[in-house]
Amino acid sequence: MIDIQNTREARKFYQKAIRNFAMKRMKTNGNMTDEDRSRCGINNNSNGYTLSVISKESPLVHFKTTGICTAKLAFSNPENHKYCMPEGQDKVMVAFGFYKESDVIPKEIDCTMTVIFGKSFSKMVFDARQLGKYFVGYARYVNTRNKIGKSATQFFGMDT
Known about the structure:
The protein is of the alpha+beta class. The protein has helices spanning 4-27, 34-39; strands spanning 60-67, 70-76, 89-99, 113-117, 121-125, 134-143, 153-158.
């Protein structure tokens, strides 16, 4: 009797390994042209592929407290004010901290809490121990290579 279930599960692992091996071999095969590689679905880097840039700009941040310990965030592209990431940027990293009215506003380096958002519209939930404190956040782009942008947008709020 044929063991179909175990055959299917075993096939998943060896097919992945064979695909990776074959793609590496085809990519360096001197007998294949770039056109041959393209027809096989292999990226041959002949179309001028470049690495994503590290952003010199930071996202515009729209912050709104929506209730007890929650807030909504919207990030927009500073070039066109659309709610999307610039080309080559994949995420937005927000470092944030809390402070009392009498305290000095924490600098970005002093903010130990970090959240990464992959969408332009997001929601944050704060720790209930921070109720009544002021909030400061610093938002930076993160590119597709996970390199952090050079500038940050500072924004404020209050956790009510």
